[in-house]
Design brief:
seven-stranded mixed beta sheet, 11 helices, alpha/beta, globular
């Protein structure tokens, strides 16, 4: 057998990483690799994933990029957490290793523009502006955000504020390093907020906050939102039951799939033994892009990085092409679908599309 073409895969598989998201991402990556190999591999060579668990640790991710570079991988793929992907992208740029980021949305993945990094997920500025527009359209102008210290949450808060303020909206920050879930309820009443957004980790403290707000009769009319997508995953519904329904979040998949997406959805469902999240499709599309690049341009890292602007691959969620987007330092897929959905209160396992961006 000819030697394999190796791709490094960065995924959060253990706490404090969001392990459920990591397993969905890995399922998508692995499914696509198996299909590539069933179809003859990369010009007769098998494609092989070299998986490293980031556990949501930026330092661990940067060290993994160094290790993978030393192991001779052609490229690195994956990662879900934005601050972790930023560390991986910065290191990949420094060592000259192509990195196709699957799922992290932070606009500034690198401090300076780089040729080495491309991304499939939409930048945070696009998705969260769509979310702000949805809030305004639903009549919400007094928005509270329960937040924790993080570049990602701070960036999200700034995007929301910048989008809402010119249209009469206000954003009130509730620091969850200083407040209990019960104190959050009191603050919501004091500020007269009509919407509370969860810019916090899952399950803690997101789940206790939802429970407290749902049980407070003073807040029966308040909307809870989760732009970062916590309700997408089955664990959310398992922990919260009916309390987890009716909480709008961002989702990067179409309302209806074409033939490729439908086939992959069925295969992912079988692999995961549950409905696949949009993160699993991001994983699949990542390998679909890299396999196309490797077949066309070989395994030389510089040639792979130089190929980003020439990518034209049919993915599960649309045709993938990378462009330079103003304000974004990496090659960016400009076309991923952006929807705001929630779990239907009448049927929490069913998702309702509320708004399309």
């Amino acid at each position: 057998m000819r030697s394999p073409v190796r791709i490094g895969a960065l995924v959060p598989l253990t706490r404090p990483g969001w392990a459920e998201a990591g397993h969905h991402l890995l399922a998508g990556l692995e499914l696509a690799v198996s299909e590539v190999n069933d179809a003859g591999g990369i010009v007769g060579r098998p494609l092989e994933l070299v998986v490293r668990d980031t556990a949501a640790d930026p330092g661990r991710a940067a060290a993994a990029v160094d290790e993978l570079a030393g192991l001779g991988v052609a490229a690195v793929a994956g990662e879900y957490h934005s601050v972790v992907a930023r560390a991986a992208a910065t290191r990949a740029d420094a060592v000259g290793l192509p990195f196709l980021c699957s799922s992290a949305v932070l606009d500034a993945l690198t401090e300076q523009p780089t040729e080495w990094v491309a991304r499939l997920s939409p930048p945070q500025s696009r998705g969260w502006q769509v979310y702000a527009d949805f809030l305004l359209g639903a009549g919400h102008t007094r928005i509270a955000v329960a937040t924790q210290p993080s570049v990602y949450w701070a960036s999200g808060t700034r995007i929301l504020r910048d989008r809402l303020a010119p249209r009469g909206g206000t954003v009130i920050e509730l620091d969850m390093s200083a407040l209990t879930p019960t104190a959050v309820c009191d603050a919501l009443v004091d500020h007269g907020a009509t919407a509370l957004l969860l810019l916090v980790g899952h399950p803690e403290p997101a789940v206790p906050i939802v429970r407290s707000v749902r049980r407070d009769q003073r807040l029966a009319e308040i909307m809870i939102g989760a732009p970062a997508g916590q309700p997408e995953f089955a664990e959310w519904a398992t922990l919260l039951g009916d309390d987890g329904a009716g909480i709008p979040f961002l989702r990067y998949r179409p309302e209806r799939f074409g033939p490729l997406g439908a086939r992959v959805e069925s295969a992912l469902r079988e692999r995961l033994a549950e409905a696949p999240s949009f993160v699993a499709f991001e994983g699949y599309d990542t390998v679909a892009v890299l396999a196309d690049v490797l077949r066309s341009h070989g395994t030389d890292r510089r040639r792979i990085a130089a190929s980003w602007p020439r990518v034209a691959v049919e993915g599960t969620r649309g045709r993938i092409r990378f462009t330079r987007t103003p304000g974004i330092s990496v090659w960016q897929w400009a076309g991923p679908p952006v929807h705001i959905v929630d779990r239907d209160p009448a049927e929490p396992d069913r998702f309702r599309v509320l708004h399309t961006g």
